[in-house]
Amino acid sequence: MNGPKTSVEVGGMGHNIKRKEDARFIRGQGKYTDDVVLPGMLHMDIVRSPYAYAKIKSINTDNAMAIPGVHAVITGEVLEGYNLHWMPTLMSDTQMVLPTDTVMYQSQEVAAVIADDRYIAADGVEAVEVEYEPMQAVVDPFKAMEADAPVLRTDKEGKTDNHIWHWETGDAEKTEEAFQAADVVVKEKVYLPRIHVASIETCGCVASFDPVEGKLTVWMTTQAPHAIRTVVALVAGHVGLSEEKIRIISPDIGGGFGGKVPVYPGYVIAIASSVVIGKPVKWVEDRSENLQADSFARDYHMDVELAASNSGKMEALRIKTVADHGYTDAAANPSKYPAGMFSICTGSYDIKNAFTEMDAYYTNKPPGGIAYRCSFRVTEAVHAIERIVDVLALKLGRDPADLRMQNFIQPEDFPYQSALGWEYDSGNYPRALKLAMEKIGYEELRREQKEKRERGELMGIGISSFTEIVGAGPSKDFDILGIKMFDSCELRIHPTGKAIARFGTKSQGQGHETTYAQILAEELGIPSSQIQIEEGDTDTAPYGLGTYASRSTPTAGAAAAKAAHKIREKARKIAAHLLEASEEDLEWEVGKFFVKGSPEQAKTIQEIAFAAYTNHPQGLEPGLEATHYYDPPNMTFPFGSYICVVDIDRKTGEIKIRRFVAIDDCGNIINPMIVEGQIHGGLTQGLAPAMYEELIYDEQGNILNGSFMDYLLPTSVETPNWETEQTITPSPHHPLGAKGVAESPTVGAPPAIANAVVDALSHLGVENIDIPITPFKVWQVFQEKGAAA
Amino acid sequence: MIPPPYEYLNPNQLSEAISLLQKHGEEAKILAGGHSLIPAMKLRFALPEYLIDISGIEGMDFLREEEGQLRIGAMSRESSLEESELISEKYPLLLDTAKMIADPQVRNMATVGGNLAHGDPANDHPAAMIALRARVVVEGPNGSREIGIDDFFTDFFTTALQNNEILTEIKIPAAPPNSGGSYQKIERKVGDYAAAAVACQLSFDAGGTIQQIGIGLTNVGPIPLRSNSAEDHLRGQIPDDSLIRESGRLAAEDCDPVDDLRGSAEYKRDLVNELTQRAIKISIERSERGS
Ligand SMILES: Cc1cc2nc3c(=O)[nH]c(=O)nc-3n(C[C@H](O)[C@H](O)[C@H](O)COP(=O)(O)OP(=O)(O)OC[C@H]3O[C@@H](n4cnc5c(N)ncnc54)[C@H](O)[C@@H]3O)c2cc1C
Question: Which domains does chain B possess?
Answer without folding.
Answer: 7-53 (3.30.43.10), 63-173 (3.30.465.10), 181-286 (3.30.390.50)
